[in-house]
Specification:
It contains 15 helices and 19 strands. By secondary structure, the chain is of the alpha/beta class. It folds into two domains: 236 residues, Aldehyde Dehydrogenase, Chain A, domain 1; 190 residues, Aldehyde Dehydrogenase, Chain A, domain 2. It is globular and about 70 Å long.
Length: 507
């Protein structure tokens, strides 16, 4: 029974997704993998047409968008291999053991099964990689869950065109009817999220909207998991020796990271803690001339929001511009920005914390000048709850871990690891590698669930739940738990008799 009456179009989508769920969950992994690869191939075949639409709707460059199509296809193929490998199923088998240490042990076998229909709310700033066929959608489909995508209002035509590519490819690959749907409108997305037939939600966007949706998911009569990737300022720490060794290189990398895609990336370095009186601000100012081309922001709403944040930051006491930058609006209301980099002393940063600490979604970053002897590890809990990334730039000698400040650096790395999902060394946080070990998540407010990731093969586990089978006849076991292991998936087996030796090695 649904929680509220849906419009006819939404009812058709949700009912079709619910009806398709058992059949889709039962598809052979290799068949589902072939379907996902077919979607990836179709997406790349349509790249030229789709990129043209995306350029018009988002203002992002052809090179950026073309690369994003490739990334999206790669992550689809990655999940195809992941679901056939089967490691994500975490299959565990405890055979019956009459001599178990706690009495007779039954045969217990545990694996994971798909949750059911999932709604994915698309992002604005990645019209391919975090949109209709992005990483969340890829992991949802790979998990065997019917997918309902709420299109982002910033690229509706692209969403429709991409959805058509997906539908045709999935149908041609023989997937059940109803495994993929696209809907438009915030109210429609909320209505579907509230529907009892929908079993999970995924979102990439602002903290405010993400919190609203997470609260809706949690307040349902039967709460459901909700995975939001929200806001992040991605602090960077640069040592004195690193600046002395390669100030110009760091300045170039920093400006590239801040200005790329007009700073509209959740992994943009928003704050950089630099030694007071170091050469880095001057190196940034000297290199800035190569990064002053205007870039259109995604839409007028984002542009106005960026202008407000930029003005608030520039107007805070103690803040002074290193690279002034700017933003102008054209006759259509679109905002065109150039990078802004400001500096502020640590004490002034502390005093103006409320005005400075929040994310500025656009090409702006703040250098925080820290006096010699500052306890950098203590700055993380002082200023930040949680972030997607934290970065540390070291000198070649410091990277050996044998310098006089090694203990302080280890303490900083430990502090970062407690408050971010990915710790980087001598690099920049923009450009998230699509690879099995990637972690794209972090403590609130970076994400709504700090144990999950939206990039990397672990993302598939968000849309599964564990089930144990006790004394089940072989004919009724999931294939992943059968003794003959027809899927060839990894199985963790606890042999009978081993319980009497548990812990002996530690005596």
């Amino acid at each position: 029974m649904t929680s509220e009456v849906l419009s006819p179009d939404l009812e058709a989508a949700v009912s079709a997704a619910a009806a398709a769920a058992p059949a889709f969950a039962a598809t052979a992994p290799v068949d589902r993998a072939r379907a996902i690869v077919a979607v990836a191939d179709a997406l790349e075949s349509a790249k030229t047409r789709l990129v043209e639409i995306a350029m018009r709707e988002t203002g992002l460059t052809e090179a950026r968008l073309s690369g994003e199509v490739v990334r999206t296809a790669v992550q689809l193929r990655l999940f195809a291999d992941t679901l056939v490998d089967g490691g994500y199923l975490d299959a565990r088998i405890d055979p019956a053991d009459p001599d178990f240490a706690l009495g007779v042990r039954p045969d217990v076998r545990r694996t994971h099964i798909p949750l059911g229909p999932v709604i994915n709310f698309s992002a604005s700033n990645f019209p391919f990689a975090f949109s209709v066929l992005g990483g969340d959608s890829a992991s949802i489909l790979a998990a065997g869950c019917p997918l309902i995508v709420k299109a982002h209002s910033g690229h509706p035509d692209l969403s429709d065109a991409t959805a058509e590519v997906a539908r045709e490819a999935l149908e041609a690959a023989g997937m059940p009817q109803g495994v993929f749907h696209l809907i438009h409108g915030r109210e429609a997305g909320v209505a579907v999220l509230k529907d009892s037939r929908v079993k999970a939600g995924a979102f990439t966007g602002s903290i405010g909207v993400g919190r609203l949706l997470a609260d809706i998911a949690a307040s349902r009569p039967a709460p459901i998991p909700f995975y939001g990737e929200l806001g992040s300022v991605n602090p960077v720490f640069i040592t004195v020796d690193a600046v002395a060794e390669r100030a110009e290189e760091i300045a170039q990398g920093f400006l590239t990271s801040v200005s790329g895609s007009a700073g509209q990336l959740c992994t943009k370095p928003g704050f950089v803690f630099v030694p007071a009186a170091s050469a880095l601000p001057a190196a940034i100012e000297a290199a800035a001339g190569d990064f002053l081309a205007e870039h259109r922001l995604l839409d007028p709403r984002i542009a106005r929001s960026f202008e407000e944040r930029r003005n608030a930051i520039l107007g805070s006491p103690g803040v002074h511009p290193i690279v002034p930058g700017g933003i102008r609006f054209d006759d259509a209301g679109q905002g065109w920005a150039t990078p802004t980099v400001v500096a502020v002393a640590l004490d002034d940063f502390r005093r103006a914390k409320e005005a400075l600490v929040d994310e500025a979604f656009g090409p702006l970053s703040i250098l925080v000048e820290t006096p010699e002897g500052t306890d950098l590890a203590a700055l993380m809990p002082e200023f930040y709850e949680g972030n997607l990334t934290g970065t540390l730039h070291l000198s070649t000698t410091e990277a050996t871990g044998e310098t006089a400040n090694a203990a302080e650096l280890r303490a900083l790395v430990d502090a970062l690891s407690r408050q971010v999902g990915r710790v980087l060394f001598n690099g920049w946080s923009t450009g998230v590698a699509v690879t099995p070990a990637q972690q794209h998540g972090g403590p609130w407010p970076a994400t709504s669930n700090d144990s999950s990731t939206s990039v990397g093969t672990a993302a598939i586990t968000r849309f599964l739940r564990p089930v144990a089978y006790q004394n089940a006849p072989a004919a009724f076991l999931p294939a992943a738990l059968r003794d003959d292991n027809p899927l060839g998936v990894p199985q963790a087996i606890a042999p009978a008799g081993e319980s009497h030796a548990w812990g002996n090695r530690w005596r």
